[in-house]
Design goal:
The complex is a heterodimer of chains A (391) and B (187). With 391 residues, chain A is of the alpha+beta class. Chain A has 4 domains: 55 residues, no CATH class; 42 residues; 187 residues, Jelly Rolls (Sandwich); 73 residues, Phage tail protein beta-alpha-beta fold (3-Layer(bab) Sandwich). In chain A, 32% of the residues lie in helices and 34% in strands. Chain A is built from 10 helices and 24 strands. In chain A, helix 1 crosses helix 2. The relative contact order of chain A is 0.07. About 3% of the residues of chain A have low confidence. Chain B has 2 domains: 121 residues, no CATH class; 61 residues, Winged helix-like DNA-binding domain superfamily/Winged helix DNA-binding domain (Arc Repressor Mutant, subunit A). Chain B contains 10 helices and no strands. Classes of the chains: A alpha+beta (391), B mainly alpha (187). Chains A and B meet through helix 1, helix 3, helix 4 and helix 5 of A and helix 2, helix 3, helix 4, helix 6 and helix 9 of B.
Chain lengths: 391, 187
């Protein structure tokens, strides 16, 4: 580089402070004879420029970066350990097989070690057919259901509807309901090719075939959508609060009853939101990277704000992402995923704020340890209850 | 922020101390990479790669300045590498062609810019409480009137705080000079 960054930075700052010595002043003058350096000097001297730049800085959260970094380090360590372990495992396996053979059919019962009754969520949902029949779908479920309204395939965490025209024309207005209990998530591929991923405690009602002039589904809870393009049949998601109208796109809707608001985050394409009771021309539209938020209370208007999309749909990729979030909100999400109830011993604890990204598929004890260490909190797990107190 | 702790974290590979390394450099390096690659998400990925590379490497740093320079240079190189690999996409090609200036000159000025911003940004936390609040709220996008209302102080006080704080940030010298400057202000 030739020139020293540090020395230049120090000189410029001395110059802003008005504390340059004569020889230094000459050096600064020489620096500023470069047009670009002069521009830079003026930029840094402008308060509004600094505010803009610092706002950019704020979007890069060091804590989150640090956590991602720690995860990568741990993964590296693990993979090193794994390489060694895998060698050991092969040896052990061989020895074990030999031992089992010697003992003929082993009669030993597997020992179940009871640790905690709380487990993270999993692929789990109920599918309710138009006949009213309810089927439990578990993690690794596979197979075909042949119903009057056509066939439905279930494949390890996904419900798939036949997309060919013949089966679509079979039954016109049959509806299915896919409901995911607390501690579950599930994926769905609709007859038109639209992919939907439902988060815990979420219910979606949808037609088996889309024969009407628009594709309409009903949502309670949170789901991510990737809607198949069909210019002639707009896709509409109806919720308690309002409608989200879609024109071939990828987005996330969050509308849990306990949130008292609906949030629609757009990843790609274009969507519009309409509050129930409003006139159709009042649709609020957003561009990718933005979110429409509308509170439940009567008279509140939809607001648009820019968001970090990755944070809003983190759940879909197996993570919780909280940015300056209250502990109350955080524990609602955690409780919903691990299917536990939360008790705060002090109201003040509810308002503590955290910024953190956590892995969803991990033991709850490990996950809570982060909060214990970060804020001197204590979590007591008993059955399906977690009590939070100060240490 | 203790400078020797940053060096200790890097040289001795102390995982807990790396939190301070992130507080010290992360936003600035991401912003630096972001200016080049124009995509915040990519910028964060690149910076993560670099810090992981430092963590895995054997290199020891004697002075903080050496580490700082190293990180900026690595960020610059990685970003340019990424841009070149994306060259086929026309918009970046245009960007690269526009830069007729020699790379080193460009890099020097941009590094000075980022390092100034980084130091100023870190010093926000050292401002007196009320001034710090005014600056933080300004960054969050509140207008002078809104800040005044929020903090229950007059609009003029907000304006003065804002002006004085930024002046202080720019002119604040490191370590000992720092104390002198503060003392000078008080008496």
């Amino acid at each position: 580089m030739g020139k020293s960054v540090e020395k230049t930075v120090d000189l410029l700052r001395k110059s802003y402070a008005g504390k340059l010595e004569e020889s230094e002043q000459r050096e600064v003058d020489r620096l500023l004879s470069d047009e670009r350096m002069r521009q830079l000097y003026e930029c840094i001297g402008d308060d509004e420029y600094l505010i803009r730049e610092f706002r950019r800085y704020d979007a890069y959260l060091p804590d989150r970066g640090y956590q991602a970094f720690c995860r990568k380090i741990r993964r590296q360590k693990m993979s090193r350990v794994w390489r060694r372990l895998s060698v050991a495992a092969v040896v052990l396996f061989a020895v074990g097989c030999g031992w089992l053979l010697m003992n003929r059919m082993g009669t030993t019962e597997p020992v179940v070690v009871a640790t905690s009754t709380v487990e993270h969520g999993n692929y789990r949902a109920y599918l309710q057919l138009s006949s009213g029949k309810r089927i439990l779908l578990e993690d690794a479920e596979q197979g075909e259901l042949h119903e009057a309204e056509g066939s439905v395939r279930v494949d390890s965490g996904k419900v798939l509807y036949a997309t060919d025209k013949v089966s679509q024309s079979l039954n016109t207005d049959a509806y299915h309901i896919l409901s995911v209990p607390p501690g579950g998530e599930y994926r769905l591929l609709l007859a038109d090719g639209t992919a939907i991923h439902l988060n815990a405690e979420t219910e979606l009602r949808y037609p088996v075939a889309f024969t009407a002039s628009e594709r309409r589904v009903f949502l309670k809870g949170e789901a991510w959508f990737e809607v198949a393009k069909d210019a002639e049949k707009p896709f509409v998601v109806e919720t308690e609060l309002g409608y989200v109208r879609v024109f071939g796109t990828e987005f996330n809707i969050r509308n849990y009853a306990i949130d008292h608001e609906i949030k629609t985050t757009l990843v790609e394409g274009s969507v519009g939101f309409l509050r129930k009771g409003d006139r159709a021309e009042q649709y609020t539209k957003i561009e990718p990277g933005y979110q429409i938020r509308c509170a439940e209370e009567a008279g509140s208007r939809p607001e648009i704000r820019k968001v970090k999309v990755a944070d809003e749909i983190a759940w879909k990729n197996g993570a919780f992402c909280f940015v300056r979030c209250s502990l109350e909100r955080i524990m609602q999400d955690i409780g919903r995923w691990y299917d536990v109830d939360i008790v705060f011993t002090e109201d003040a604890l509810r308002q503590m704020r955290f910024t953190v990204t956590l892995h969803r598929y991990q033991d709850i004890g490990k996950l809570l340890r982060y909060f214990e260490e970060a804020a001197k909190l204590q979590f007591h797990i008993q059955g399906k209850n977690i009590t939070i107190s100060r240490k | 922020m203790n400078e020797s702790r940053i060096l200790e974290a890097v040289n001795e590979k102390q995982e807990e101390l790396w939190q301070e390394v992130f507080a010290y450099y992360y936003a600035a390096l991401c912003s630096y990479a972001g200016r080049l690659v124009q995509e915040p998400v990519i910028a964060e990925d690149l910076v993560q790669d670099i810090l992981l590379y430092v963590w895995n490497g054997e290199r020891k740093f004697v002075q903080l300045e050496e580490l700082t320079n190293y990180l900026y240079r690595a960020t610059y190189n990685r970003s340019m590498m990424w841009l070149r690999s994306e060259k086929c996409k026309s918009k970046h090609l245009v960007r690269l062609q526009e830069e007729s200036r020699p790379e080193s000159e460009e890099m020097f000025i941009e590094t000075v810019r980022e390092e100034l911003l980084r130091q100023l940004y870190l010093y926000i936390d050292e401002l007196p409480t009320e001034q710090r609040k005014v600056i933080r709220l300004s960054i969050e996008g509140l207008s002078v009137n809104e800040i005044a209302e929020h903090l229950g102080i007059s609009v003029n006080t907000v304006k003065t705080h804002k002006k004085r704080s930024f002046k202080q940030l720019r002119g604040r010298m490191k370590e000992d000079a720092n104390v002198f400057w503060l003392a000078f202000f008080l008496f």
